[in-house]
Design brief:
Elements (H helix, E strand, L loop, with lengths): L22 E5 L4 H11 L4 E2 L3 H4 L4 E5 L2 E7 L12 E3 L3 H10 L5 E6 L2 E7 L5 E7 L9
Parallel strand pairs: 1-4, 5-8
Antiparallel strand pairs: 2-3, 3-4, 6-7, 7-8
């Protein structure tokens, strides 16, 4: 039985959503170096070259396997304060230490569905959630 207000609608036969391909976050013009320090140096997601036809727009892409975070320049930039990506990590305590050492505020939250969680902001104020399977919790395949 579905929770009140939720509807179960069969998927149309002509479309199948397979997975999330990438997340795009906005950043102000000229923020590429700050993005690299956060996403590459602290979070450890390698930068990949943007396609030549998109490179002139600014921004930068970070990808590791199926994890793809793209940052695009937005002229009238405003950070995403509520909407956010949530990254499943291994070594949440280490990532938290790295963020704190780099002077990023880290806010702990209650565990949810067997996952320990913290929030931080990227250099532009976009909200980022980091999650790790709780110690002793049965781990799901990801």
């Amino acid at each position: 039985m579905l929770a009140r207000g939720l509807r179960q609608i069969p998927a149309p036969r002509w479309v199948t959503l397979l997975r999330l391909e990438h997340v795009q976050l906005a950043m102000p013009e000229g923020g590429e170096d700050a993005a690299r320090r956060f996403y590459c140096d602290i979070l450890g997601i390698p930068e990949v070259p943007k396609p030549a036809r998109l490179a002139s727009r600014g921004g930068c892409w970070f990808e590791s396997g199926d994890l793809k975070v793209h940052l695009g320049v937005e002229t009238d930039f405003r950070p995403a304060r509520k909407a956010h990506p949530a990254f499943l990590v291994s070594g949440l305590a280490t990532v938290t230490e790295r963020l704190t050492a780099a002077r990023h505020v880290v806010v702990n939250d209650e565990p949810l569905n067997g996952l320990d969680r913290v929030y931080t902001d990227d250099p532009f104020g976009n909200r980022i959630e980091l999650m790790e399977h709780s110690a002793g919790a049965q781990k799901r395949k990801v």
